[in-house]
Design goal:
heterodimer; A: 5-stranded parallel sheet; 4-stranded antiparallel sheet; 6 helices; 31% helix; 26% strand; B: mainly alpha
Chain lengths: 216, 286
Amino acid sequence: MTGEIHIQHVSKNFRIWRVGLKVSVIDDLSLTVSEGESVLLLGPNGSGKSTLLRVLATLLMPSKGKIFVYGHDTRRRSRALLNLLGFMPEECKFHPGISGLIFLNYLGKLMGMREPKTRAIELLGDFGLTKWRNIDTSVYSEGMRQRLGLCSALLNEPKVLLLDEPYDNLDQEMRTKLKIYLQEYLENGNIVIAASHNKEHFTNFREIRFPIEKEE
Amino acid sequence: MFNVSIFLRNFIHETWFSIRNCFIILKYDATRYLLSNRTLVLFVFCFVPTLLYVSFAGQTASLEIYLHRNGYQWFIGYVLQIYVLFAYIINILVSIVVIQELFLHESAIEILLSSTKRFELFVGKTVTALIVLIVTSIFTWIACVIAFIMWQQDLPMTPDQFLTAFLILIAVSLVPLTITILGNTIVMKFRSLSGMGSGFPIFVFFVIPFFIFSSIYLGFATEEILEYSSYFRVFFITNFFLMTKDERIVTSADVDKAFNFFGIISILAIIFSWIFFWRMETRKKE
C-alpha cells in the first residue's frame, strides 16, 4: 500500500458545543491518489474540501475511516508522516514581531533540516519576498502572508503538498509563477492536493467535486 | 523479525530529537516573548508586591512595636511570608497573561501542528511559560531587595532565607501555571467559551477565595472551608518554612498536606491539559 495516498471510508463530523449540534461534513469518502498526481477539491464554501485537507494534514482526526499517506496512518501523526506533508492553510498567520526569515528558520529547525536558512532564503527569493525577509510579518499584506505560507509548506520539500485556496490574494505575476512552480514540483513525482471554489488556475488537476453525492 | 538494536537506535534518536525540538521551541518562544513590549507590562507587575508591601507596612505603625518585641528573625520571616503571598498573586496574573499568549492566541498554530509533534509543542510551550514566570519572579525579588535597601538597610537577611522564599514562590506558582494551561487547552479543544482561558483561573484563584474569605469574615461558614483556598495552603507553607520555630502555627503534617494538595492539582491539571492539547482539532471559525 506504499507510494500513494489512500483515503478509506472517511467521515468527519463536527460537534458545535455552543448550540449542541452535530454536523456531518464528510460522509464515507474513499479516494486514492498516486505519485505525481494533482487533485483539486472543488466546491462551494462549507462543502468540506478544507476539512478534508485538514484531515490529511493531521490537524483533524477522521470520525470514521482511515487515511494512509505513503503507508503512514494519519492518526498516529508520526514524524516520518509529518515530514512528508506540507500544508498551507487558507488564512496564513505568523508571529507578530518576527521576520519571515526567522520564522522559516525556526520551522526548518523543528523539521530537522540541516541548513534551513539557506533553503528559506532560496524560497523567499522564489516567491518575491527577498526585500521583506528581515521585516516583521505583522506588516505583511494578505498576499505576502500567503506567499510566506507557501514557503512554509514547501520548506522541507515535502512529498505531499496540501494547499487551501492557494491562488487567492496573489497578484497575476505570482499566480503564473506558482503555476509553473507546481508543474515542476509535480514532474518530480510529488503529489499536490488543492482546495478551491473555482478551477480557473488548476489545469491538468483531477477534479473532485464537493459536497460528494453518495452513490446508491 | 523484531530487531532490538534498530528499535533502540530509533528510540534514542527519537528521544534526542524530541528534547532538541523542545529546546528549540523554548529558545524561540522565550526570546520572542521576553523581547516583546508585553514583557515591559510584566515587569511593571513585578513592582506591585513591593508597592503593596511598602504601603501596607507604612500603614501599620504597630509593626515597629512588633519588631522591637519579637526581634529581627520574626520580622524577616513575617516580611518574607507576606511578600511570597503578594508575589504569588502576581504570578497568577502573569500566568494568565503569558499562557494565553503562548497557547490560546498562538497565531501560527496550524503551520506548527502540521510540521511538529504535538508533545514537543506542548512541552516546549509549558516550559517557556515556566521560564517566563521564573524570570518575572526574579524581577519581583530584585524589586523587593531594592525596597529593603531603601527602607531597612541593616536588615540582617541571609541569602538562604531569600532563596528559600524564592523556591517556595516558584513551587506554589506551579498551581496557577498548570490550572491556566488547563483552562486554555479546554478552550482549544472544545472551541467554545473562549473567555474560559482567563476565566477559569480567575474563578479558581480569585472568585472562589473571595467567597470563602468573605463567608468566614461574615461569620456564616466554618474554618474548614479555608482548606479549599490555595492562598491558605500557601500561607501554611510559608509559615512553616519562613517563620521561627516559636512563631510557627502549623505542623509539618499540615505542610505535607498542603504540598500534596498542590502536587496532586498540578499533576492532574498538566495530565488533562496534555490530553486536551493532544486531542485538539483546529478548524476554520464557524
